[in-house]
Structure formats: C-alpha cells, structure tokens
Amino acid sequence: MKFLRPLFAALALSFAFHAGAQTAESLRFSIDAYDKLLASLPPDAEDAAIGDMLVKTAKVRELRDQLQQALDSLNRSGRPKLAGAFDFTTFGGAWPNGVVPYAYETTGTNAMPAAQQVLFERAIREWQKVSSLNFVPRTTQADYIRVRFSGNADDAPMNSFIGRTGGAQNLNVAGWGNMIDCAHELGHALGMTHEQCRPDRDSFVTLFPQNMSVNPTNNVNYAIVPTTISRTDYDYDSLMHYPRGTFARTNGLITMLANSPNEHWSDGKGPQEIGQKTHLSAGDRMAMAAQYGSPLSIRGRIVDAGGNPLAWVSVTLENPGAVYRGPNPVSTDNSGNYVFEGIPRNTGSYTVRPAQLGATFTVASRTVTMTTSDQNGIDFTQTDAAPPSVTITTPIISGIYKSLPTASGTASDNAGVREVRVALARTSDQVWWNWTSGTWGTTTFDWNTNMKVATGTANWSVNLPAFADGGYQIHVQSVDNSDNASTWRLRHFFMDPTPPTVAITHPVSGGAVHEFASLRGTAGDGNGTGIADDRIYFTLYNDGDFWTGFEWKSNTSAQDPEVLLWADVVGSSWSYTQVPHGPDARTGLYAVSSFARDGATNTSLPNPGVSSITFHVDRDEPTAAIASPANGSTITNLPSGSWFSGTASDSVGIDHVVLYIRRESDGLYWNGSGWAPLAVPASIINSSYSNGNWQNSSTLPVPGVSLNNGSYSFIAIAVDRAGNQRQTDSLVSVDYHPIYTWTAGSFSDADPHNNNHGWNNPANWNPYGVPTTEAKAVIPSGSPNAGGLGTLSLYGLELGNASLSADGIQIASGGTFTWTAGGLHVGQTHIPPGA
Prior knowledge:
A hairpin with a 2-residue loop joins strand 44 and strand 45 (693-696). The strands form eleven sheets. Strands 28, 29, 30, 31, 32, 33, 34, 35, 36 and 37 form a ten-stranded mixed β-sheet that branches. Strands 19, 21, 22, 23, 24, 26 and 27 form a seven-stranded mixed β-sheet that branches. With 835 residues, the chain is mainly beta. 10% of the residues lie in helices and 37% in strands. It has six domains: 12-289, Collagenase (Catalytic Domain), CATH 3.40.390.10; 295-381, Sandwich (Immunoglobulin-like), CATH 2.60.40; 389-495, Immunoglobulin-like (Sandwich), CATH 2.60.40; 501-617, Sandwich (Immunoglobulin-like), CATH 2.60.40; 623-734, Immunoglobulins (Immunoglobulin-like, Sandwich), CATH 2.60.40; 739-830, no CATH class.
C-alpha cells in the first residue's frame, strides 16, 4: 500500500527518559486518533502509517487498547498505567548486538538510484559515529532492512517500520529527501518513535487539537505511543520532534507549543526551534548509545626519529569492509595524533598503515582487534629517511667582498648532523680548490682533495684561502647521523681585493695648456667588480679655491662635499667638461686629485702624477732670440758645429723650438738635403733645447756647397708647454769663397785608373772636389787641363809656376786674378778691372 508522505520536510527524532503524567483529555485525544486511523483503513489492511512510522494494523489496535486501559485506570485511581520498559513489544525488537543487515532494492521502479544510496550511506555514518551499530550488506540474513526508492513525486512517501519487525522490512526513500531525512528514517528502523509521542509529553508540550487537520492519518502523529522507551530527558532539539505547526488545518495555525519555561523552543524566532532538520541532537546521540552501546575508536601518534610529532602523515585503515564508514585515510594533526572514530564493537581485525612520501617507518603497519574497548596507542615512528637541512650565511647571495676569511652557516636534522662538507670552485674556468695542496686544481672533482669538512655542525664554519679578483662558488652539503645527505647548496660570490685605478691623462701631469677645456682620463678595476656607479670623483684646486662645478669656493677644503666633483666612466675612459670658463677661467697652477671606488668598496690608491696632478694654464708667449747667425751678419767662412743657435724661455717652460732657413732669392726652404717650397715637417730643422738654450740638431746647408752666397732668413719659433709660441728671424748674408789648391793628387792616390791632369778630376784638388763659380783656384805648379770644359767661371785664380790650358776664363766681378809665372793657354779671358 502507498503511505502518506509527511507534510513537512524535517521530523525531529529522539528517545526520552522520564515518563510523565497524561491528562484524560490527552488520552482521549490519542484514543480517538487511533480509532479514526483504524476506521480509515481497508478491512484487510495489514500495515498502517503513523506519519512516517510504518506499523502493523494489529499493533495499532494494541496501542489503542493500552491507552484505553490507561484512561480507565486514571478514572479509577487518578493515575494512568503505561508501559515504560524498553522491550520494543509494540512495534518491533532491537537489532541484536547492533548488527543491522540491509540491502538496496536493485530492480523495478523501487530500485535505489546511486545518488540516494550515497545519501543513505552518509546517514548510516551519522548513527554509526555515536553508537555501536554495524550495518552490514545483507547476504542470507532473514531479518533485514530493504531500502527502496519511492519516486521523485512531491507526495512520494519516506517512511520506515519501528525497530526490527522480522523478515524484510521496507524503508522508503523519496527523491525529495536529504541525508538527515534518511537519518530520521533510520532512527525509526533502529527503534525510535517521535518525541512528541512519548507518554510524558504533556509535561513538556501543549497540543491544540482544534487547530489540527481532521485527516485521521495526520492527527495520529500526535497520539501517545505508550511503549515509547524514555532513555533521556524530553528533547526539544531531537531530530524526532515535530515542528509547532505540523498538520495544522490552515497555514499559520499552531498545533503544538513548548511548555514553560521552554517557550523559546516554539516561539518561531530561532535559533532553537522544535522540529529542526539539520543534525542529531545530543539527546539523540545519547539515546542511541544507551540502546546499542558507544562505538569504538583507534588512536595513535606518529613521530620522527627524534621523537618530534609529524603532521599531515596519511594513515589508512585497511580491511574495514562495510563496517567502518568514517574518513579513510585520515591525516595526523600538528601534534602527530590521528583517530578513526565510529567503529562498531566486536567487528574483528583492522590494519593501520601510515604513509608519507619518501618516508618509511620502523613498523610498516599494525593490526588491531576491535572487541569492546578502544584501541589507543597505535603509534608509529618514522625511520630517518629525511635528509638534513643546511644553510649558507656567509657569503651572502651574490655577495661582493674585499676579503672573506671564513664561510659559515647552519645545519639541522631531527636525528642530528654528523658533518658539513664544503667545496670551492672558480667561476671563470670551473676549477676546484685543492684543500690539501692549497692551490687551484682541475675541473675534475676529487672527494679526497676538493672537499673539506667544516668546523661545527649546527653552526658550521670553514677558513677560506686568499682570493684573487673574480667570481667563485661555494658548495655546501650536510650529512646526518643516519648517512642521509642534503642536496648540495650553491652560493655565488665575488672577490675583489684589488682597488681600482684612476688616471688623469689630460692635461698631462706637470704640463701646461693654453685653454683649459676639459679633464680626461681612464679608470678600471682589472678583473674586479668594476667601477662603482661607473663614476670617478675628483677635486679641482687653484690659488686657494676649489671649483664646485659652477663657481670657485673659498675658505674650504677637499673634504667639503660641495667641491667633490664626478665624471661618468664610459668603457675605460672618463671626461669632464664643466671646467671653469668665461670669467672663472683662471691662469696659473691647478691641482687635480681623483679617486674611484669599485663594487667591493675598495678605493683607488693615491698615485701622484697619475691620479693626482698639477698643471698650468698659461696664455703668455715665451721669449726667443737667435744668437747665431746674428741678424745682419755675413757668413764668410765655413762655420763648424751646430752654428744655428739661440735662447728661449717661458714661465711654464719651453716645449720645443722650430727652426727654418729660407733662401731669399727664390723663397725656397732648406729641407736637409736641398732647397724646396715650404713643407711641414720636411722644412723643419730639428733642434735641441736645454736650460734656456737651443741649437740645431739636424744638417744645415754648407757655405760654398749648398749655402750659396746671397741673403737668407734664419727663423726660430719657440713653443712653450702651453702651446704659446714666439717667432724671431735673423736676416743673414753669405759671402763665402772656398779655396781649391791644385795637387795633381790623382797620380798619388790608391786608384791607378784615374791618373790624369784633368781640371774636373776631384782627386787633383785639395779639398777633394772641383772649384765652383764662387771658389778661388790656386795652382802653384803642374799642368791642369780644362780643355773641352768650356769657359771656366771662377771667383778668383792664382797661377804660379804652372801651365793652365782652358777654353776660356771668366773671373767674377769683385774677384781676384794673380799670375806670377808659368803659361796660360786659354781661348778667351774675362777679367774685371781691378781684379
């Protein structure tokens, strides 16, 4: 038959402890409700529904008769007589030893969907957490709960028989029901009735029959069930209690209120309210535990090898079958504790097994047998499979150091650290440090020589070698007392014990400049960390004042931050152009002192003449004079030595003197081998300067050979160290006539092939050569022959006891002619008067 679905979504359930007195009115109401229910049933109906409680029709009649007997007793003695024993005599019995076989309908329209099965299993777990109930899938058991699906309709019934009725007893689950609805029906199947049906209910609630529906199958839900077992105080919070307006004639009417002083349980204001549909109440839990006993638990603690608690270790309860439905696996808490709760009594053996990634335990698992007591102290100890930890304190990550005498750090392990290992590598070539020989070794790591055990463990340190500039790596590993080793930790660091260098290249140290336009120089740090901020710093000083970059500042020192100037380093060069200019551009002595810092905070060392210099700014011309040949003088002889000389001077010093000789007849310049148009540097005659005196140091023209008679300008240009220059000229005449004496030397020299009396044979003259037009020929004796050479042009001719043959003779104007003896055999002669 189809049973009526309750008109509310949640039904409160509980057992009660104390029987209370019933009024005659309440007994008559209950008898009337049972009578109307029985009258509404077909004559052959075997089952009836008291709300969601399924009852055999014969049992309903028994309940009605028991209430009638109670009413009769009340009328006779003033006290009702109701049964208070927990014997399940009216509805059904308790489940022996808490073992409840059950089966899901698997065929037909009542087959349980998977979703509803999940809800029902969760409901089982709710009761199993508070009592020793062992729900087992039915195999061949005669008495069991048959869980059926009643459909998804709004009026689909959700109900159950009370207690164990024998055979297959239905428990219907509707599609609209949730987990707590399933728990409610399970409460019935385990023997619980509705709380408001307790025999003592009139002491706790007041009914309003006039507000109730006239439907007999509704009102019977308020009828007293005289055999209800009272195991706890009346429980307004019970899952088995009805709400205050259940089965009202119209919405809003109250059918039941809590008696004073518990009115708040039915005032509709919450959060406490009869008829809750969210949880098992404390009374529900106590009542079920009182009936079937408390469930058992398995507890334990998991620690590491050092006895420290281990959190988040997974613990699995194996072989629980369908007996245990709690969380599985569970995890240990921060104290290392775990627990499996809600295990039915006398359910046999279980295996407890911990698991943690990468870990093992001294005992892999433990077997426990659940009888009637909790199993506590199921503890496990982790074997020491975890590696120790190690940290590097010094050097810091990518640290830069001028010196690093030691490296240090920490290490820890739950079982203790045995040692800390250290290795060093050079970044540039990946060569390992040999701790034995104290040298850099090879790129192949050797445990015997390239690894060193540090001093200390929890706090370790190791002395390091002296480092050159460059990058390095420290590798550190810790090993615990169980031979577990940490991974190698790597730390890069940079050593820079060498200070940077800085140099000023312009102006040069001790030099001078005509205009001070910029400071320039170089800076570098070799293989070090580089110039910090790519800047060098310097001060610029002149005549008691420091330059700020904008003006001269008096009465201060080089420590004044305002006078500390800087320049950017690009590559390895730097320059500074914001030097004094305009009215601030002073002459005189300047001093510059520079320095640089590198990434390791090394400061460049003072280096006079390189990083600190002095120089002059000089705009005055030097003085210069030509001492030889003097201006207006005449060269009549053959000068010897460096005869082009003079003086020059300047306050900042003479850098060099430039010399020229210009032939006035054609404007050509002497170039060291002949006369040519002006060309620099070919026309420059080299000079040397010392202590205010200068003189030529390269070849000069020779009078009578390359310096013919005539006018010449001797030019000297003195250049001081600032580039200022002064030119001075000396206009000189050359009137030089060399004397050639005939010796007929060709007959007496070592060359027998040139023996002759030829005029043009240089071996016949002293000095060796042939008389030029500016020369005077002296022939004391002999027979020179100039025939075929044309007219001889000479400045002078002195003929002694000799014989001269020539085509002709021409004596220059102003020249001389002397003929004392001998013969003159010539074609023509041109001898000026007075010669």
